[in-house]
Amino acid sequence: MEFDFAAEQPKFLMLMYGLIAFVAVVGGLLLLLDVVPAWFARRREAQLVAASASGAPLPRRRKPREGVFALFFLLPTLLLLTIGLVVPAIRTTLLSFMDAGSNDWVGLQNYGWMFSEDSIIRVLLNTLIWVLLVPLVATGFGLLYAVMVDKARFEAVAKSLIFLPMAISFVGASIIWKFVYAYRGDDQDQIGLLNQIVVSLGGEPKQWLLESPLNTFLLIVIMVWIQAGFAMVVLSAAIKAIPADIVEAARLDGTTPWQMFWRITMPSIRPALIVVVVTLSIATLKVFDIVRTATNGNYDTSVIANEMYNQAFRYGQNGQGSALAVFLFVLVIPIVIYQIRNLRQQREG
């Protein structure tokens, strides 16, 4: 089969136009960021030179101009946020009150469907299990790793190996763990690590990802494996930031390692623990890749983000998919508000 450049010419033109537009926009922004500050600096320098030569008092900076100057730099970000976040959020909210084809208003019907359909209730329960387990378990393992490798002989190597899963995409990690959970018939050699261990211990191989609710917990293991490295890095940095004089004073008082951990380490790293738990909670609420890659949401493993995709893009139910998206957004808001309040209290304290 030969590639026909003539037939694909419109696509290449679209690609070329996109590249030109990208270069123009980015290049224009970079040019403005270079030219405008330089122009203000030259103008300010000229004013200072003129004032110095005439003996007049030095001109003071006027705050309104500084505000306009700051607004100039914020405009591109505000524009992108409006186009990429605010407008889609408003549009999705409106679609959640409309029917599947986004033609007629149906009020709260899509939200009623969400809490009355057994399959969707299962999705919500799965998401709740994810949010309860992943942040706590991943943070617990991260804290354990941070304490164990702190000031160890090969600390840098150990941290690199523990953090390595973070460098793998969720899809890649899911494919790796699908091989771990892989199943073959009783009369065949097992290629899945988990089934091979079971067989070597005299057990029978199982189709792990088909058994509910066990499969949900096995998918959670993938998320914990990825995120424990992130928790370890943040908490390890917090542990190293504990003042040495506090640690030395505790040791001189005869504090045991267990007392040191609960009375010195834990209170000192509490802000870091909150940051890790909040960050992992938000990431877990939005989990999609792992479920999509490992089970495609089948066998009672679907979560909100995966079901939102199915309803909107596979089943053509724009209203129901939008309702799930809005509900997911609402779940994230309290966590974000809590984190903002916590950071504000830390600054004031």
From TrEMBL:
<feature type="domain" description="ABC transmembrane type-1">
    <location>
        <begin position="124"/>
        <end position="341"/>
    </location>
</feature>
<dbReference type="GO" id="GO:0005886">
    <property type="term" value="C:plasma membrane"/>
</dbReference>
<dbReference type="Pfam" id="PF00528">
    <property type="entry name" value="BPD_transp_1"/>
</dbReference>
<keyword id="KW-1133">Transmembrane helix</keyword>
<comment type="similarity">
    <text>Belongs to the binding-protein-dependent transport system permease family.</text>
</comment>
<dbReference type="InterPro" id="IPR051393">
    <property type="entry name" value="ABC_transporter_permease"/>
</dbReference>
<dbReference type="InterPro" id="IPR035906">
    <property type="entry name" value="MetI-like_sf"/>
</dbReference>
<keyword id="KW-0812">Transmembrane</keyword>
<keyword id="KW-1003">Cell membrane</keyword>
<feature type="transmembrane region" description="Helical">
    <location>
        <begin position="68"/>
        <end position="90"/>
    </location>
</feature>
<dbReference type="GO" id="GO:0055085">
    <property type="term" value="P:transmembrane transport"/>
</dbReference>
<feature type="transmembrane region" description="Helical">
    <location>
        <begin position="161"/>
        <end position="180"/>
    </location>
</feature>
<feature type="transmembrane region" description="Helical">
    <location>
        <begin position="128"/>
        <end position="149"/>
    </location>
</feature>
<feature type="transmembrane region" description="Helical">
    <location>
        <begin position="12"/>
        <end position="33"/>
    </location>
</feature>
<protein>
    <submittedName>
        <fullName>Carbohydrate ABC transporter membrane protein 1, CUT1 family (TC 3.A.1.1.-)</fullName>
    </submittedName>
</protein>
<feature type="transmembrane region" description="Helical">
    <location>
        <begin position="217"/>
        <end position="239"/>
    </location>
</feature>
<feature type="transmembrane region" description="Helical">
    <location>
        <begin position="322"/>
        <end position="340"/>
    </location>
</feature>
<keyword id="KW-0472">Membrane</keyword>
<keyword id="KW-0813">Transport</keyword>
<dbReference type="InterPro" id="IPR000515">
    <property type="entry name" value="MetI-like"/>
</dbReference>
<feature type="transmembrane region" description="Helical">
    <location>
        <begin position="260"/>
        <end position="283"/>
    </location>
</feature>
